[in-house]
Amino acid sequence: MATILVIEDESILARNICDSLKFGDHEASTVRTGEEGLAAADALSPDIILVDYRLPGIDGLEVLRELQRSGNTASPIMMTAHGHIDTAVEAMKTGAVDFLTKPIDLKVLQIVVDRANEHRRISGQLHYFRGKERADSTYDQIIGDSAPMRQVKSLIDRLVSTPALSTSEPPGILITGETGTGKDLIARAIHYAGPRSDNQFVQVNCTALPDHLVEAELFGHLKGAFTDARSDKRGLIDFAEGGTVFLDEIGHMPVMMQAKLLQTLEHRTIRPVGGTKERKINVHFIAATNRDLEAAINAGDFRSDLLHRLRTLTIHLCPLRERGDDVDALAHHFLRTHAEKFGIPVTRFTEDAFAAIRSYDWPGNVRELAHTIESAVLMADGPAIRPDHLNIKQATPASGNINIQIGASKSLAINFAENCPTLEEIEYDIIQAALIYSKHNLSRVARILGISRDAVRYRIERFEKKSND
Which residues neighbour 282 within 8 Å (Cβ) at sequence distance 6 or greater? Predict the structure, then answer.
């Protein structure tokens, strides 16, 4: 249902329009002049305004101009007996969402009003969700005052205060850190604090897209480009025009797609699948990964030239266990947030609960902390969260001896307390054992370990060179 104001000087037509609108479950009122219409628009705050082009006093176009100048949010629809194209174009330029010619067909009127009302509903939802996303992604949402987080905030401040992000070729940003450290929050904070905040922020999870669909999703496709391409489709990069594309978990992007992404970054153009023409883009690219990209390059899983393009600037997020008292601030922040969201009167932690939070390593980082506190708020049976509500299992082995089970019948014994070997030394020992087993047949070693001959030779030479230095 919509509240509708009808500005029409023909009283019979105005009454018929109002009756028809009321029959369609809308609220409708009518005035005769443009001046009365402006006063009524200010007093009633209608959703839709039907305004005649020819009125006593100021005409319909002037009414539209005054509505625009006053910031009125109603959706105007112009009505006229003089259905010239120029009049319709001028009405649309002045803010009208639709145009009706007289004599008014009441069935068409209902369709036009319902369409305008639906457009308002969708626009309102979009405005709400964009506002919520902006509020949830602001700089203030970066909780923590540890030295590493102060450094991250300082870098963001410097970055967004320069014109760098508003240029046609903004610098690439690579955000690194363990899973759950908040890389997506940092990317959003950069976007919404910077000059591109009025445009789209498009997040792409590189692990969630099937390999055969990555190109079409990112760059779009033309009708008939492949079997299921029944119509043209814009790509995610195209949707972000003027804004930001956040490539989450870039380290897992298929190697073949990395070449096309590199070309896009270098030439600032995209070409849809099945297309022959390239189109210039103005997009800021931010990437994030929890993977060691240097190691991925050595393993042949990532392009070194793409890494150089992506990391003009690098922001590293420390794991939560290295952020000191930040865990205190984050725990209280999530307690307030979830208690308010669920309407549960939980206001504090017991001393034992807070001690458990502080002593835990949080391998899942901020994300694990947030989910743990959310669960505890729901489980709490009083105003305080106790240790049993947290369900934290502290891992404290009695000695340094650890037996690691590998599969059903293999195990590896390591003493972490005394002379623990490095990962590289363990890797070398395994390769040496495989060499002895295979009588130094490199091809057989490669098959056993599931790597290439070159990778075996590279690791042996690297370790021997390090041992001789």
Answer: 168, 241, 242, 268
Single pTM value for the model:
0.65
- 232 part of a folded domain: yes
User: CA 90 to CA 73: how far, in whole Å?
Assistant: 19
Nearest residue to 30 via CA among 54, 11, 56: 11
Average pLDDT of the chain?
87
Low-confidence winner among 75-89, 125-139, 415-429 (lowest mean pLDDT)? 125-139
Residue 407: which pLDDT band, with cuts at 50, 70 and 90?
very low
CATH number at residue 364: 1.10.8.60
pLDDT score for 444: 86
Phi and psi of 387, rounded to 5°? -55, -35
Minimum mean pLDDT among 80-84, 231-235, 303-307, 324-328: which range?
80-84
Residue 61 lies in domain: 3-130
Contacts (Cβ under 8 Å, ≥6 apart) of 167: none
Angle at 63 between CA 58 and CA 64, to 5 degrees: 145
* In a domain? residue 51: yes
pLDDT-derived band at 63, boundaries 50, 70, 90: very high
- 403 burial type by CB count under 10 A (0-12 exposed, 13-18 middle, 19+ buried): exposed
Question: 68 and 215 share a domain?
Answer: no
Q: What is the DSSP letter of 77?
A: E
Beta bridge partners of 330: none
Regarding whether 239 and 177 lie in a shared domain, the answer is yes
Among residues 106, 130, 154, which one ends one of the domains? 130
Instruction: Report d(CA 192, CA 140) in Å as an integer.
Output: 11
